[in-house]
């Protein structure tokens, strides 16, 4: 049985990839980019491990049409076997027209140096690769900072992501509350989260645990 250290899942996701998507965030990242919106996913907590089949069952049970799956974290490629099992299972269930987009803090060259990571990469339709650099956050649509590359890897990936790889577009951000926990999905512009915290405080809302603080 293949397990994945899982942080959370979300549906619908409309801010990280083409169309309406499912989102999976893995738990554990040793890269630790300053300003990361998901710092709560950095610790590699053993009790977060769940069978990949459980995640695939969640995907299969989602209502409504889905355009694809976005996997982020955490660092998905630090769990390459689990990532490959997740992507392969999603591809087998949903078939063509369902794209697989993965965010990684590794460059493409680093992903290709390791056999297990290469195997997971081969299942992606597109990958956003490279560490997040806060000073290079210029408000791109699906890349957190301008050094990151949005790389289409298949015909479907090129169709959906090839024309927007260098298009700044307009950033979109989903923010929600779940069991008194605030989460954010998307690509905030530099300073957006600090402005959000300021507005919440002015409305009398005291922040405790949020996804963009470790």
- Overall structural class, as computed from helix and strand content, comes to alpha/beta
The CATH C-level name is: Alpha Beta
> Which residues form runs of ≥5 with pLDDT under 50?
none
Overall pLDDT level? 91
Number of domains: 1
The shape is globular
Describe, in plain words, how this protein is organized in 3D.
With 214 residues, the protein is α/β, with parallel strands linked by helices. The protein contains six helices and nine strands, in the order βββαβαβααββαββα. The strands form two sheets. It has a seven-stranded mixed sheet with strand order 3-1-2-4-5-6-7. The chain has a two-stranded antiparallel ribbon with strand order 8-9. A hairpin with a 2-residue loop joins strand 8 (173-178) and strand 9. The protein starts with a strand and ends in a 12-residue tail after the last helix. The mean pLDDT is 91.
Characteristic terms for this protein:
single chain; 214 residues; alpha/beta; TIM Barrel
């Amino acid at each position: 049985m293949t397990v994945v250290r899982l942080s959370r899942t979300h549906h619908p996701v409309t801010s990280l990839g083409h169309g309406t998507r499912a989102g999976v965030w893995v738990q554990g990242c040793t890269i630790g980019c300053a300003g990361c919106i998901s710092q709560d996913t950095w610790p590699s907590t053993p009790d977060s491990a769940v069978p990949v089949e459980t995640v695939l069952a969640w995907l299969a049970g989602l209502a409504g049409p889905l355009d694809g799956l976005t996997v982020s974290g955490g660092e998905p490629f630090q769990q390459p076997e689990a990532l490959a099992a997740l992507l392969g299972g999603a591809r087998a269930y949903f078939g063509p027209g369902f794209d697989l987009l993965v965010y990684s803090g590794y460059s493409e060259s680093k992903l290709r140096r390791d056999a297990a990571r290469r195997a997971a990469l081969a299942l992606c339709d597109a990958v956003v690769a490279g560490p997040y650099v806060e000073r290079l956050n210029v408000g791109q649509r699906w890349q957190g900072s301008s050094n990151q590359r949005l790389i289409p890897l298949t015909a479907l990936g090129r169709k959906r992501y090839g024309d927007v790889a260098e298009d700044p577009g307009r950033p979109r951000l989903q923010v929600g509350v779940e069991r008194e926990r605030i989460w954010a999905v998307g690509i905030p512009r530099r300073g957006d989260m600090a402005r959000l915290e300021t507005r919440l405080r002015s409305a009398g809302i005291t922040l405790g645990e949020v996804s963009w603080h470790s």
